[in-house]
Structures are given as C-alpha cells and as structure tokens.
Backbone:
C-alpha cells in the first residue's frame, strides 16, 4: 500500500499557485515502519515525519555550542518497525567554545598586548625538516625548518573542573599574543612573515607555537678549504621589540610536555647537535641562543666527487 500523499503549496508563478505532491507522513494501514524518532536534547532531527519506512535514516544535528556524543549520530528504521538505537543520541556542551569565548573576551584579553608589562621569556626548540638545496655559488640555503616557541600567558589560564576537565585548547596565532619575530638572514625577497598557524594553550597558561616553513637564508662560505668546502648557514630569528627574551627550555622533571599539533617528532634544545647525510653533502646543525637572537646553525661540508665515465661497446 502506498503512503498517503498531500497537496502542498510551494509558491506562485505569476497569478497561479504552484502545488506539489509530498508524503503526508501518515502511516499507511497495515504497513510496517517506525513512528516519530526519539527526542534529542540540545539538538534536532532531520527529517521528522510521523512515519518512516524500513531503511530510512534520521540524522541528528546539535545546536550551536554543543557537540555530538557519538561519531555516528544517525538512526535507521529497521525491518521490524523499530529504531536501530534510542540511547546516546544526545548532544553535550562543547566546553571548548565556552572556554575560548571566555578567555578571548575583548573586555579581558587583547592580543596586541604582551602577557607582561616587563620582559616575556620565550623558550625555543628547533628542527631541520629537510635541506632542499645548498647553493655554493650564491651562498644561500633553501630548506624546510621548524621552530617551537613557548611562553607563559597567565591571562589564558583556567580551572579545568569548571570547563568539563578540558586541559588543553587549540587556538590560532591571530587569536592570541605571539612574539614579534622575523627571519634575520632572509634571502627570499618574497618572504615577509611567518604564516598564521595553530597555537596550543594549556590550563596553566603555557602557550606553544610551532612554526614550520620553507626558508631561504644566506650562508658563509670558506672557499679556502676547496675541494672540501665548508658553508655555514645560520637560520636566525630576531625580535622587533625589546619585550621578548629568548632562553633555553628547562626540564621540569616528570612534568608532562606540552602536546602540539605539529607533525615534527624531534625538536632540538640549546647545545644539541645532529648530523645527517643529504644527497651530495654532509650536514650538521647546532642550536644556540643569544640575548635577542635565536639561531639554528647548519654546517654543510661539501666533498668533491670525481666520476669516471666508462663506455662499453658490443662486438658482434
């Protein structure tokens, strides 16, 4: 038996009314199906009809400020005329939205102002993701570099128990204060600033900013050592104000390190050294810190390779 249909006014065309035929949502006599889907707290159901045939789905959408309690928030009308599930269909409060709205309210937080009226200590780590090119002739290096900067901003601290035990929040560099840094030995005229990126904030006000970017920097070449040339390429970050103070991160015993959204696995701290063979050069890099400058020194040693071409002939 077919489901009852109703004539529905769907608008006008000139002086004529447009009428369409749609299901009335009424249960046909003797038909097997499901009735009205269960209510959803802090959410809506779509579609909502008085009758659903077996196999039809109803999707759950949460109201603004709420999140789904399960990944699969849909229910299906089964062959025996019951809904596939009726539990765990609610929407819970998204404390991250409440927390970010509270922390970043304009009456208590301005990203233009630093966390302190004095100096802000910036701890850093660094990593060389990939050396793409080391150009001896033009004395510059092109590669993918990563920096991890962290600092304290007490304005961004909160009590986790008041916000659903949320202990970490991901914001962006446009939302919070970040150090005014620039690339000192920049060799790319098109590069002006680091792109916007996520920052990680913990409940104690610790802010972490991971910078991963393709950079071209100038190098210092020692041609006197030819054919074993040595080229030093400092990748240095400087500050445009006197507020920031770079320093080396201090181990905090058993304290859990700040988790980050970055895919970089191993960052280096002050004094750490690493060596890697990249194509035709051997590269070593070390991290150093100065008062207003943080540098990742990359030392490339080039080895002259003499190859002998051998030709073969096939005698028939």
Residues:
């Amino acid at each position: 038996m077919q489901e009852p249909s109703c004539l529905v006014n769907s608008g006008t065309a000139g002086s004529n009314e447009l009428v369409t035929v749609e299901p009335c949502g009424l249960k046909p006599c003797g038909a097997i199906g499901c009735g009205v889907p269960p209510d959803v707290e802090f959410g809506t159901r779509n579609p909502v009809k008085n009758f659903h045939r077996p196999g039809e789905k109803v999707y759950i959408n949460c109201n603004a400020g709420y999140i789904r309690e399960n990944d699969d928030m849909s229910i299906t009308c089964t062959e025996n005329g019951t809904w596939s599930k009726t539990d765990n269909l609610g929407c819970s409060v998204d404390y991250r939205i409440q927390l970010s709205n509270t922390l970043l309210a304009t009456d208590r937080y301005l990203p233009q102002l630093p966390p302190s009226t004095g100096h802000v200590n910036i701890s850093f780590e660094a990593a060389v993701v990939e050396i793409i090119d080391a150009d001896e002739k033009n004395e510059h290096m092109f590669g993918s570099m990563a920096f991890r900067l962290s600092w304290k901003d007490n304005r961004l601290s909160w009590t986790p128990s008041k916000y659903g035990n949320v202990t970490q929040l991901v914001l962006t560099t446009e939302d919070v204060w970040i150090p005014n840094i620039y690339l000192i030995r920049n060799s790319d005229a098109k590069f002006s600033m680091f792109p916007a990126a996520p920052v990680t904030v913990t409940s104690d006000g610790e802010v972490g900013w991971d910078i991963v970017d393709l950079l071209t920097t100038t190098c210092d070449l020692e041609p006197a050592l030819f054919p074993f040339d040595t080229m030093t390429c400092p990748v240095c970050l400087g500050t445009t104000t006197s507020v920031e103070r770079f320093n080396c991160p201090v181990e905090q015993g058993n304290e859990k390190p700040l988790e980050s959204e970055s895919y970089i696995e191993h960052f280096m701290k002050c004094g750490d050294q690493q060596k890697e063979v990249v194509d035709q050069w051997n590269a070593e890099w070390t991290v150093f810190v100065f008062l207003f400058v943080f540098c990742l020194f990359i030392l490339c040693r080039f080895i002259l390779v003499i190859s002998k071409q051998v030709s073969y002939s096939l005698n028939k």
Remarks:
- The radius of gyration is 31 Å.
- The chain has two domains: 5-93, 100-302.
